[in-house]
Amino acid sequence: MNSVPSGDPSRFDRDTAVLGMGGGVYSTELLEGWNIVDGPNGGYVAAIIARAIGCEIADPTRTLRSLTVHFLARPRFETATIDVTIERTGRSVSSASATMRQGDRLLCTALAAFSVPLESPHSWAMGLPAEANRAGNDDRPELPPAADNWMTDLQYDAPFFSGRGTARVAGWIRTLDPRPLDTIALVAISDALPPAPFPRVDAPMMVPTIDLTVHIRADLPHPTMTADDSVFAEFVTNHLAGGFNDEDGFVWAPDGTLLAQSRQLAIAR
Q1: pLDDT tens digits along 106-135
Q2: Distance CA 64, CA 67 (A)
């Protein structure tokens, strides 16, 4: 089973495709176009894992709500296999685990939860921040090849590695080829912008991700969005110490609906 939709799929769908091999095993190609310094972008890898798990659950009434990926080793740009296990299927939630490997190398482990639609007796959420209406920066920084897979309008308050800004990077973003927003794209978007510490640190640094968690907070497709619409993503680092930094992320639809939250821990080199 190939996950690429019929017809003319977008480049994002082709790049994150998985091929079912049977027995919960899926194959994928990790592509050089998603390189970020010296390996594939973590959000891209997480999106592929999310797609494989969704294919194995194979229930359109259950959508991704939570995904946590631990990155154990740097993947190479070649074929990888994903082994998915459905751990439990309850009335509301299906839970699954997955591993990604290249040969004998264990690259990633993951846990995911897929849920049927649920109603809440109470409801509140963070609205779209006022900064979303601010114009993006004109001086686009030099970014790795993975950034070329997105249309972005970035916000940051000082040049990267200038030591003069706050640890926040935000902006409007969508896939390069217009496509309806889904949970797979939201997972990738949760690690798509430049790392939040860049405006605050005073020298270039690498921030390889240790773990990434993404929570999907709205049903998709979102009724007010078209395939051409961007979402507003904001990422902030509150604590950088001891060689590690956190990064908290939020993604909103243009109408202010909170679509996803994320959190990651990264090594600050």
Answers
A1: 999 999 999 998 888 888 888 899 889 888
A2: 8
Distances (CA, A) of 80 to 50, 61, 104, 108, 178: 14, 28, 11, 11, 27
Q: Is residue 84 part of a domain?
A: yes
CATH number of the domain at 60, please.
2.40.160.210
Cis check for the bond before 221: say yes or no (omega within 30 of 0): yes
Domain count, the chain: 1
Query: What residues contact residue 11 under an 8 Å CB cut-off, 6+ apart?
Result: 149, 175, 176, 177
Rounded-to-integer distance, Cα 190 and Cα 50, Å: 13
How many CB atoms are located within 10 Å of the residue 93 CB?
15
pTM: 0.95
Q: Which two tokens stand for residue 216?
A: 């999907």
Task: Give the separation between CA 249 and CA 191, rounded to whole angstroms.
Answer: 9
